[in-house]
Every structure is written in structure tokens, then in C-alpha cells.
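call fold(seq) -> C-alpha cells
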Amino acid sequence: MSQESGRTAANPKIVSGTSELRPAGNEALINPCRGKSEAAVSARVILTFVRPDYEYLCRLVQAKASPRSLWECALRGGLWEGQPITIVAPAMGAPYAVMVLEKLIALGARMVLALGWCGSLQPGVCNGDLLLPTLAVAGEGTSRHYSRGDGDPTPAAALTARLQQALKNSARPWHAGPIWTTDAVFRETADLVQHYQAQGVLGVEMEMSALFAVGRFRQVPVAGLLVVSDELATLSWQPGYRSEGFRQAREQAARLVLDVAAQWEADHV
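ret:
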């Protein structure tokens, strides 16, 4: 496999008693890498899942160069508070988001903040509120490949604490707690919603548990911030993503993650 594909073969090891070369049993056969002609990304990265967030973030950081493409995902660089930041989107869904994250780490990302949307599962979590995940219940199939048997994935603690402090200083309603990550947006059934409601899960989205698992596995801090775009708590879908309040919440969330990314100490990235 060529390096330009973003993958490289694992280093083989000699199997005792044979001349055949094989990787260790739990070692991946293909690993992400930086190709010879590929430019690096900045240490600080904002990963998003929809074009509107990506385009707004690019305007905020005054991205100058034309976007690069990473598996049909756009990357652009800019500055916020004097710090280089790479903006990436749209990486929707856990498997695709993980492919993109793995490659970003190989290209030099050392701190990743994920900005997304979510559905609310609790009555007090409303359209336009911000949600800070502290744990992600893995209902997708990607994170288990990165699991070390230490429970549901959690975000980087120090980075999440930074986000929480920034939220405390904002005027927007916000909540912190567990979320549910699913692969099947059209199979969020009444039984599942009630099950997770009873466990105190605040919202549902499609990427965070897998991203947190990769961050933990690769030892790169990854955390996330979500904007509530719709409500499911009453077992009736209440969309809010076309409202003016939701637009304002998205814009505030974008500035907040940029602030936290820029303030992250150089010795952490």
C-alpha cells in the first residue's frame, strides 16, 4: 500500500520456528501515516460534521488557502488569537470520522476538538442549548476496535475542563453529562430513548464515542462540544435546527471551541 493513500504496512516480526514475517497478534496490519507529498496540519484541530459549521469556522479564522481534501473531507488552516488552527469537515458518522481523525493525527494533530449537533433525550435539555459530553455510551461499531476494556469512552479530562470553564463564562444554557453515540439515526426508537433517559443520558449523536476511543488509544487529547438541534424527550421529534436560536448557539459554540483550542498550552500540543 502506498504511503500516499495514508496507510502503511505494520513492521513485521519473525515468528518463532519459521522464516515467515508476521506482525504481532494484536498489531494492526495497516497503519495511518503521512505521505511524502502531504503537508502537515496544525497541532490544534477543530473537527466538524456539517458544512455550515465548517464554513463559519473558516470565516472566523480567516482561512486564506483553498481547501485540501482528505477522503472527500475538506481541510483549511487559519489563525485564532495568533495560533494556527486547522478546520476539518464534514466527517459525519463514526467510521468516517475515525478514518479522518487517524489521518489527522498522522499529519501532526496533537489536540482535537469536535464540534457537532445532537438530539436531546431529557426534558430540561432544549433546542439551542450546548452540551458538554463527559462520557459517550458506544452504540456504534467502531470504538470497540480501539477499546482496552476500560468502559465507555471518555474525552480528555483536561481539555473537557477547559471547555467547561468556558461554558461557565458564557450566557448560553449548557449541560454536562453522558451522551449516546449511534450509527443509526433512523433507528432511535422509543424503547432506546426511554432506556437511555432512565440512565441519565442527555443526548444522542453519531461520532463522539468513537473519537474519544481513538484519542485515548493514540494518547492525543480529544474532547467535544455539541449544540442541541432537536428534541426526543417526549418520544415525538421536535426539530430546532432551522431556528434563529439554534443558529446563534452554533456561532457561540464555534467561537468557544476556537478560544479553548487557542489557549491550549504549547507544551500540551
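Residues 244-263 form the longest helix (20 residues).
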